[in-house]
Design goal:
Chain B: Keywords: ATP-binding, Cell membrane, Membrane, Nucleotide-binding, Translocase, Transport. Chain B: It comes from Microvirga arsenatis. Chain B: This is ATP-binding cassette domain-containing protein. Chain B: Belongs to the ABC transporter superfamily. Chain B: InterPro entries: AAA+_ATPase, ABC_transporter-like_ATP-bd, ABC_transporter-like_CS, ABC_transpr_MalK/UgpC-like, Mo/tungstate-bd_C_term_dom, NA-bd_OB-fold, P-loop_NTPase, Transp-assoc_OB_typ2. The complex is a heterodimer. By secondary structure, chain A is mainly alpha-helical. Chain A has two domains: 55 residues; 214 residues, MetI-like (MetI-like fold, Orthogonal Bundle), CATH 1.10.3720. Chain A is built from 13 helices and no strands. In chain A, helix 1 crosses helix 12 and helix 7 crosses helix 9. The longest helix of chain A has 48 residues. By secondary structure, chain B is of the alpha+beta class. Chain B contains eight helices and 20 strands. In chain B, the strands form four sheets. Chain B has a six-stranded mixed beta sheet with strand order 6-7-8-3-9-10, with helices on both faces. Chain B has a five-stranded antiparallel beta sheet with strand order 13-12-11-14-20. Chain B is elongated and about 75 Å long. Chain B starts with a strand and ends in a 10-residue tail after the last strand. Classes of the chains: A mainly alpha, B alpha+beta. The interface between A and B is medium-sized, with 16 and 22 residues.
Chain lengths: 285, 349
């Protein structure tokens, strides 16, 4: 009886210790990952809202002191910043639309059909990323000027689409491969044309993955500096514009600029996070 | 309702000939099973009938209309897929209603027909659930209900029970037979499971190597196989094949003799395990018993006849020990003679 009583707590202790060690590891990993992402954002935010003095104070305080929106509002009031922000949103939005409209059909074709040159096509799509943009810069500028695309967010979005397209095509390819062909075949048998089957059956199932593709495209466009800088003069995107003006700005303006650059990506990912989790939930099954 | 005529259909995948000139007529309201091992072309044939695959040559005629080049949606058929292909983003109701919605049926009619199909398959209880919340058997029912809801002229089924566990399979098989008899739909059913084919079908087409080896009622196919393959594929244990030489209309095995067709000399005796009975005094065909397996309903004896492997079914109470030689009585009318050279049955006298 006593031996039994002594044994039971011991086994219980052992069975508890393994999961709790694993849990500790999990939470530590989570904390490190969170810190990795959040600490820099926090420091940038601190610089952006801490005002002129906060940036130079030493030793730095971890907690926000004398918060003010002054730097932010002053920064936004700088001539052209708001315009550049709008340009960036237009370019990124168009990049999302184009890369989905062009990339998703390519991904669908790669996933569903066997055709001659399939592997060559796949490689070619990737090779567009291997081609250095710097070499293209001058001829591109010349032809953009000729076509009337120079210095427009639309022109910038075309180049960004080229950059985002490989991701769009390859991500959507694996996405469509994950949707069983039988779903479509069932739809055909029960009265759908190919197009109807795609709209009614494939598209709803692909939506989470398409959202992820959209994020990639948006972030690629939003972060891109080089092409945006050479293809625009007045109608700059935010990154290109900031690159020029921040070099001549006081430090707290730079923080404000950096913070504004971070915000849209974070908001965008936040908005589509539901679809992202869905896509990873499917993948992990 | 419609009949199906498959007229000399050939399918080639590159140099590989998956179907070699298949011809088959399925009568109105008939249930035909395509039975065969994997890779025999049965699923390819079904997909060609459905329009999901294009034949290399030949015609498919459904209800008098040549549908060879029509899209699947214009062929007036419904299909149950092996993995069910229930749309995961639609409720059970919408899944069953899918075909009717595509026909632009009025809401009241959709509701009525969906409810009838659901009642037929006992899924009324979870019409508003999503497929992820259903068990395999329930999904299977939804797939059949979706197919029956459109009241198709032709129903195609591609191994619909193969993903269910054994008990559920038996239950669904019985139910499927009752439901389909009631609906009176012309049905083609692909399976590699002989008990399913035997239990469900009016006629079975046994396929092997891209050809139909034999078409007939389950009993015909079982009792009088047309080829060595059919005899060996159907039945558990499979038919025994014993090589014998036939001289002047008599084959000699040990001390026993059997009348045989005299047109061919190199023959194989096709003998069903249950068509041989143990003789009382050890006369008849000598059978060396090696293993005795009591199966409950019968004894399964494995051993050799004339040095060739054979399996014989004996009554459960028979007293047989491994290692002994027993005699078998065989009714000459119930044996099949196979020509060794061609593998085809020799015509009965």
């Amino acid at each position: 009886m006593t031996a039994q009583a002594a044994e039971i707590p011991q086994t219980r202790h052992r069975s508890m210790s393994l999961p709790s060690a694993r849990r500790l590891l999990l939470w530590t990993g989570l904390a490190v990952l969170l810190a990795w992402v959040l600490v820099p954002i926090y420091l940038v935010a601190l610089g952006a809202f801490g005002g002129r003095l906060g940036v130079f104070r030493w030793p730095k305080s971890i907690w926000p002191t004398d918060l003010s929106l002054a730097a932010m509002t002053q920064f936004l009031a700088i001539e052209g910043v708001f315009n550049a922000l709008v340009n960036s949103l237009i370019a990124a939005g168009l990049t999302v639309v184009f890369s989905i409209l062009l990339g998703a059909p390519a991904g669908y074709a790669l996933a569903r059909y066997d055709f001659r040159g399939q592997n060559a096509f796949r490689l070619l799509v990737l090779l567009t990323r291997a081609f250095p943009l710097a070499i293209l810069a001058l001829p591109l500028t010349v032809s953009f000027i000729r076509l009337g695309l120079y210095d427009t967010p639309f022109g910038v979005s075309l180049i960004h689409t080229v950059l985002a397209l490989p991701f769009a095509a390859l991500v959507t390819q694996s996405l469509f491969m994950g949707i069983p062909r039988e779903y479509e075949e069932a739809a055909w048998v029960f009265g759908c044309t190919r197009f109807q089957a795609f709209i009614r059956v494939v598209l709803p199932l692909a939506l989470p993955g398409l959202a992820a593709t959209a994020i990639f495209a948006f972030v690629i466009s939003w972060n891109e500096v080089f092409a945006a800088s050479i293809l625009t003069v007045r109608e700059r995107t935010l990154t290109a514009y900031l690159l020029r003006i921040l070099a001549e700005s006081p430090l707290h303006y730079r923080f404000a600029g950096g913070f504004i650059l971070i915000i849209p990506s974070v908001l965008f990912i936040f908005a589509v996070r539901r679809y992202l989790f869905a896509v990873w939930g499917i993948a992990s099954k | 309702m419609a009949d199906i005529v498959i007229d000399r259909v050939v399918k080639e995948f590159g140099p590989f000939r998956a179907l070699q000139e298949i011809s088959l007529t399925v009568n109105d309201g008939e249930f035909v099973a395509l039975l065969g091992p994997s890779g025999c072309g049965k699923t390819t044939l079904l997909r060609i009938i459905a329009g999901l695959e294009t034949q290399t040559s030949g015609r498919i005629v459904i209800g008098g209309q040549d549908v060879s080049n029509l899209a699947p949606r214009k062929r007036g058929l419904a299909m149950v897929f092996q993995n069910y292909a229930i749309f995961p983003h639609m409720s059970v109701f919408e899944n069953v209603a899918f075909g009717l919605r595509m026909q632009k049926a009025a809401q009241a009619e959709v509701k009525r027909k969906v409810e009838r199909a659901a009642a037929l398959l006992h899924i009324e209880g979870y019409l508003d659930r999503y497929p992820a919340k259903l068990s395999g058997g329930q999904r299977q029912r939804v797939a059949v209900a979706r197919a029956l809801a459109v009241e198709p002229a032709v129903l195609l089924m591609d191994e619909p029970l193969s993903n269910l566990d054994a008990l559920l399979r038996l239950e669904m098989r019985t139910e499927l037979k009752a439901v389909l008899r009631q609906a009176g739909t012309t049905t083609i059913y692909v399976t590699h499971d002989q008990t399913e084919a035997m239990g469900l079908a009016d006629r079975i087409a046994v396929m092997y190597g891209g050809k139909i080896d034999q078409i007939g009622s389950p009993l015909e196919i079982y009792a009088t196989p047309a080829t060595r393959f059919v005899g060996g594929f159907i039945g558990a244990p499979p038919m025994n094949f014993i090589k014998v030489r036939c001289h002047g209309g008599t084959a000699r095995i040990g001390d026993a003799t059997l009348p045989c067709p005299s047109t061919v000399t190199d023959l194989e005796l096709g003998l069903r395990g249950e068509d041989a009975s143990l003789s009382a005094n050890g006369s008849g065909i000598p059978f060396d018993v090696r293993v005795v397996e009591p199966m409950g309903s019968h004894l399964l004896l494995t051993g050799s006849i004339d040095g060739q492997l054979a399996r014989i079914v004996a009554p459960p109470v028979a007293k047989v020990n491994p290692g002994v030689r027993v005699g078998l009585n065989v009714d000459p009318a119930r044996v099949t003679w196979i020509d060794s050279a061609t593998g085809r049955a020799v015509a009965r006298a």
